[in-house]
Amino acid sequence: MTSRMHAPHTTCPGCQEEVFLDELVAGKCPLCGCSLEDFEETIGEYEGILDRSDLSWLIFNYFVFKKFVDLGVPPHQIMEFVATYEQNAEKPPEEWTQTTFSLDLPMGHWDQIKPKRCAKCHKLFFRGGKKLITGDMRHTKVHVQYVCDLC
Length: 151
Known about the structure:
The chain is of the alpha+beta class.
C-alpha cells in the first residue's frame, strides 16, 4: 500500500481522476482514453531528478555532515565544503582544482588553557587564536591545527 502512495501519478485532464503512470494504456487514461502525451515529458524530468539524488551520494553527504557537525564545525562551512567536493566529483580526479580544505573548530576549555604552536609562524602562544581542522579530499587523514592572532 505504501509503495503505491509514492508511485508517480497525475490527474487526467479529461475525466479529472487520479491516474497512476503504470496504469496508462499506450499513453492514454484507462478510464476515458484521453491522451497524456504532455505528461510523458515530465516523466523524463522526474527520472533525471532521481539520478541526481542517488542513494550513495545522499549517504556520503549525511556522514560527512554528521562527522563535521559532531566536531563542532559550523553548518554553513560544511555545506560549502560539500558543494566544492560535488563540483570536483563531476570531473576526473586529474582535473580537480581544489582538494584541500580548512574548517574552523570551536576551542574547548582545555584548548583555551594549554599552550599551542601556530601552524604558520611556529610561535608558541597561550591565548586567542583559532582552531582549524585541515585535510585533503583525496585522503582520509585530517589534522587539527592552531593559528595565532598575528597570522
